[in-house]
Structures are given as C-alpha cells and as structure tokens.
Design brief:
Chain lengths: ~160, ~400
C-alpha cells in the first residue's frame, strides 16, 4: 500500500464524520475519528473503507464506508472489550503478531487490511511461510490470529 | 403532594409534538393514544441529588386513564419525551398518600411536612418524606420498603439492584454534554412544530396544546420527519425495562453461527456454552472448528428448536425485507441474520421516514460476534448497503 492517502480516503473520513455527527452511533460520540484505511478485496481492489474511532490508546469502534462513499455501518466495541488501537491500526504491530503466531512462521509480505471470506469478517491478511515451507495467509483481527481455511463448499463463517 | 408547576411549558410542548408524530406514524403501538390528552404539568420526579429530573403526566381519553408520559425537565436526560407507560392509571397524589400511610403504620413516622417523588435508582421511583427540609424516610413505590442511605462505591462498580444513587451525579461530562446538546436541539425543533399547530407562534389557536391527535395538526405533521426505533427489552413494555441483550464474541474464527445462536438463546435464558451449540450444529471443536455449509442453513432453525426442547418455534426466511426485522423487534424477538459468509444477530431497528426522500433511512442494530472473542455492536447498519441472505426468527410457543 502507498503511504500517501488517496483522495477517497479523505472523502470516506468525511462520510464517517457526517454519520457520527448525525447521531448514527451515540456509542462513539466524543471519540477521535482517524484516517480512513482501505479494505481490500483479495484481488487488490478496494472493497470499502474502515474509519477508526479511538479513545486514548483503545479502538472504540469504527465506521464502514462503501467503496462508492456511502455510509455502511457504525460499530462500537463493548466498553469492557475495546482492543488496543495499534493492534488494528499499526501494520508493523500486525506483522509482529503474525510472525509470532506459531513457531517457524516467516512473514513474506506486507499486511493488507482485508477480510476472511466475507467482507463483514474484516481482518488483516498477512502472507507467511510456514515451518514446513508451505505458503499461507494468516489473519489478524485485534488479539485474534488464525490461518486461512480452505473449504470445498461455501460456509457461513468461512469460505 | 401537590402537582408542581416546575415543568417547562416548552418541554411539554415538545413532548406533545413528538407524541403526535409517533401516533401519526402508526407504529410502535402508539396508535391507540390517538385522541388522548396529556394532563400537564404532572408530578415532579427528583434526582437523588434534589434536582427535578422529569414530570410524569397522566394520559387520558374521555376522562379514562390510558397511561402516563414522562417529560424531561433536566436537559441531561437527552430528550423531552422520555417514556410512555401505556395501561397504567397514574395518580401521583394517591401514591404519595399511600407512602405517608405506610410510613406511619410501618415506621411510626408521622411528622412529615413534605413528600416528593424521587428516582432513587432511575427509573425506579420512591417517595421521599421530609421534615424541616430534611429526609426522615424514603420508601420504594409499591413495595414501600425503606430505601437504604446512599453508600460510597468504587467508581467502576455499578449500583446494586436496590440501592440509592444519583443518576445525574454519575453521568460523565462527555455523556452529559452530548445529551444536553441533543436535548436542546430536539426541544427546539419539536416546540416549533407545536407552536405552528397550536397557534403558539402568534396565530389563531388550531388545536388544544395537550391533545394527541395528529389529524388535527393538518399539514404540519407531514413535514415532520418520523423516526421509528426500537431495541429489545425484557418485555414489550418499553417503559418498564431497559435494553436486555448482550453481544457474544465468536470463540473461533468460524463460529459466527454458534455465537449468534448463543446470543438468541441467552436472550431466552438458555445458558448454553458456544462449544455445546457448535457441537449440536456440527461445527467441530475449539481445536478443529468449521463454518456452517450453505447447504445446511436450515440446521440453525432445527438447533434453536432442539436446544429449547421445542419451546422456541424457529423459522428460516430467505432474503428478508426490512419489515421482517422491524416486525420481529416490535414483538420483542431477536433474529439471526445471515449475510454472505457471516452470521450476526439483530436486536433493534431505526427507520427515518421523511417527505424528503434523501433523508429516509433504514438501519439495523446488529450484535456482531466478529471480531473473535470480542464482538461488536453496530448501531446502525444501513439496510440499503448490505445483502441479507437469510433471517432466522424464533418465537416462544404459547399454550
């Protein structure tokens, strides 16, 4: 990903701010609205925008904005379960988490904010080489880390 | 206790406007209030710290009681119209007299020169009996049990179920500021509508200022943007109980279905673990979990019934419209919602209907088990931007 925000990132943040100002998510009132991050399809195109809302060092929630810049949803973590903001927003921290997910795992590429199977299941996708030499994708969502599953039939919960 | 005159006329006007809007919308069970009259100014209800919180006003039609309406005095409550209690015969003075009687008979307390209603644990009410401006006794309305003195609690400890605490003093500054801003904005818009309808702006009076009859408001109501909204409560009587639903994070990356079933079963007080539900659905174990194949969607309805010994009657719906969700929530029933590749539950809806189509909005309150081991509450998910594959309804079987 380029470090330079695309013009749409600013527009996505504006959409999120307008939704919050309009009372769309009282649970997120008073939080800091961060820069929008693109959520990528596996093919690399932008599926939607993830606009974080933080309180201090915690992620209070986020606003999802569609690729064509419409408000999609505003989500808030329960107050007692707000994850560390950098576990969602700092790609270096995500990379470290993926690298530490199992013995012998080597990160082979940059983490990409994407999803596991379905766009609602947002997570960072990290390409890795496993201890046995096989290539795989590890997903990181806050403190949760798992390896991509391959299924023969579409599933609710995985593809 | 005499009905006090401390409620602002402006707040009452705003509440009347809001009630007319709700009745005009025809939803939320408010249609039966059509033709009723609010008996202002009602009875003042105080916070434990002594400030007036709201006024409870009797609602009548043809002299017969229909219920009561709580109208906020204190802007920290966030909106002028607080609650509508339907079916109750509210008589504040009678309650206070009963409290005085209980104080004399059970506690030997007779030297009382003032009595007032207090939200000792908002919205739970008590009657505070005073002498010389000092409290001599506080009795919970209905049970007439003595409410204990206020105790010191750690800041992060919630009040217990029978405890005196100040709703105003426990608001944090951020929440207070947000609520007061919303209160003043709402009050201004609604009071302005009321003035147009009743001639309060200087024109000839059109309708009685406390009448709930939107048809009499002529062309004013259609310009009013209606907001229909509801989330799950303990029962369908919204005025009596607060929100009654909790999010459960999925315990593996693929157990969104198990977590969704768990949320619904928790609502109905079935305390199953997620592993037990996953086992019933054939979703493997914590060490070797799997998702639910599309070909087995119907297993969700079967599991809801089996795990409740058929006390719940479950139905699977395909590509359900928004009305499915709003109807179920109005009936106080959560739903499981499948979108492509994921499952969540729905516990509320919000619908804005305006004569300006651009302002229309349909949203769902989604309790999402994602991310794993956390979950998130989405308020609101724009119905127009999501693909809804299945919905599962569950209804308690009645005899």
């Amino acid at each position: 990903m380029s470090d330079r925000p695309s013009p749409d990132a600013g527009a996505a943040r504006d959409v999120a701010r307008a939704a919050l100002d309009g009372g769309m998510a009282p649970d997120l009132d008073g939080g800091d609205v961060g820069p929008a991050l693109p959520v990528h399809h596996p093919d690399g195109s932008v599926e939607s925008w993830f606009v974080p809302v933080t309180r201090g060092d915690r992620l209070a929630g986020f606003v999802r904005v569609t690729a064509d810049l419409r408000f999609q949803a505003a989500s808030a973590f329960p107050p007692g379960a707000r994850p560390a903001a950098d576990s969602w927003l700092d790609s270096r921290r995500v990379r470290d988490m993926a690298a530490g997910s199992a013995d012998g795992v080597q990160v082979t590429g940059e983490p990409v904010l994407s999803y596991d199977g379905a766009p609602a299941r947002i997570a960072w996708a990290v390409p890795v080489r496993l201890a046995d030499g096989g290539e795989a994708t590890v997903y990181v969502a806050g403190a949760s880390i798992w390896q991509a599953r391959i299924t023969t039939e579409p599933e609710t919960g995985a593809h | 206790m005499a009905e006090r005159q401390t409620s602002t006329a402006r707040g009452t006007a705003a509440a009347v406007a809001h009630l007319n809007g709700l009745v005009s919308a025809g939803g939320l069970g408010h249609a039966e209030l059509d033709g009723s009259v609010l008996q202002a100014p009602g009875t003042a209800v105080h916070d434990v710290n002594g400030e007036v919180l709201f006024h409870r006003m009797r609602l009548e039609r043809g002299g017969l009681p229909l219920g009561y309406v709580d109208v906020a005095d204190h802007p920290s409550l966030g909106a002028p119209l607080l609650a509508i209690g339907q079916g109750a015969d509210w008589q504040g003075a009678r309650l206070v007299a009963a409290a005085r009687e209980a104080a004399a008979e059970r506690h030997g307390v007779r030297d009382v020169d003032e009595a007032r209603l207090v939200a000792f644990s908002f919205p739970k009410l008590a009657v505070q009996l005073l002498s010389g401006g000092r409290e001599v006794l506080m009795l919970e309305v209905g049970t007439w049990a003595q409410v204990p003195e206020q105790r010191q609690r750690p800041a992060d400890e919630p009040p217990s179920d029978f405890e005196r605490w100040s709703w105003l003093d426990e608001l944090d500054d951020e929440d207070r500021s947000r609520r007061e801003r919303h209160f003043h904005e709402t009050n201004e818009v609604l009071a302005s509508l009321h003035a147009q309808a009743t001639g309060g702006g200087g024109g000839a009076a059109l309708v009685s200022p406390h009448l709930i009859a939107p048809a009499r408001w002529g062309g004013i109501i259609p310009r009013y943007t209606l907001v229909l909204t509801r989330d799950l409560h303990f029962s369908t009587r919204d005025a009596d109980h607060h929100v009654c639903y909790e999010v459960r994070g999925q315990e593996t990356s693929v157990w969104c279905v198990a977590a969704s079933v768990q949320m619904v079963l928790d609502f109905y007080r079935y305390g199953y673990t997620q592993t037990r539900i996953a086992d019933r659905l054939g979703l493997g174990t914590l060490q070797n979990p799997s998702g639910l194949p599309y070909s087995r969607d119907g297993d969700v309805a079967a599991a809801l019934q089996a795990l409740t010994a058929d006390a719940l009657s479950a139905t699977m719906l395909t590509t359900p419209p928004f009305a499915t969700y709003s109807t179920e929530i109005d009936a106080n029933r959560p739903l499981i919602s499948f979108i492509p590749g994921h499952s969540r539950t729905v516990a509320g809806f919000d619908q804005v209907i305006s004569t300006v189509p651009a302002l229309n909005f349909e949203g769902l309150l989604v309790y999402d088990p994602w991310p794993p081991n956390a979950g998130v509450i989405t308020r609101w998910e724009n119905f127009a931007t999501q693909t809804y594959r299945r919905a599962f309804t569950a209804q308690v079987a009645l005899v």
